[in-house]
Design a protein that fits this description.
This protein is of the alpha/beta class. The chain has helices at 13-29, 56-72, 89-100, 113-120, 123-130; strands at residues 4-8, 32-38, 80-85, 104-109, 135-139, 145-147. It has a single domain (4-154), classed as HUPs (Rossmann fold, 3-Layer(aba) Sandwich), CATH 3.40.50. It has 5 helices and 6 strands.
Length: 155
């Protein structure tokens, strides 16, 4: 059923859980995994204790560390490759879905809820809404949900 699974990783516990799910699916389907992370500057959320932004090189190094750590968690019997992109996160994942001929996306969700997602943005929601392939969103300690694309996804 699935041959090429794209797994979004960011070093979070929900991404680690998503990777576990993706490995199980890849093993049962004989699929290969592609791990993607995005070196992107965080959005500015002002405040009196704002910290300086990391440099582009620091962002790239951190992204490389994240995919290397995730790749090390994949068993040797599951084919895996890694991709690091620099772009808005959801856009980078959606571009990779199209360019990489993936037939499933697996990603974690931090479960911020509707109100916080509206204010802060939600990568999983953006990918879910715009992906041309099924998306599995995994939350820590919660069941996974799979959404199949609809005609609206292709707009």
């Amino acid at each position: 059923m699935f041959h090429s699974i794209l797994v979004a990783v960011d070093g979070s516990p929900s991404a680690a859980k998503a990777l576990e799910q993706a490995v199980d699916i890849a093993r049962s389907e004989g699929a290969r995994l592609t791990l993607i992370t995005v070196a992107n500057r965080p959005r500015w959320i002002g405040g009196p204790y704002a910290m300086p932004y990391p440099t582009d090189e620091e962002l790239r190094q951190e992204a490389e560390r994240i995919v290397e750590q995730a790749e090390a968690a994949v068993p040797e019997d599951v084919p895996v490759s890694t991709v690091v992109r620099k772009a808005p996160v959801a856009d980078a994942i959606l571009a990779r879905i199209r360019d990489g001929e993936h037939d499933l996306v697996v990603m974690g969700s931090r479960g911020r809820g509707t109100a916080r997602s509206f204010l802060l943005g939600s990568v999983s929601r953006a990918v879910l809404d715009r992906s041309p392939v099924p998306v599995m969103v995994v939350r820590c300690g919660k069941a996974a949900a799979v959404a199949r694309p609809t005609e609206a996804s292709f707009a």
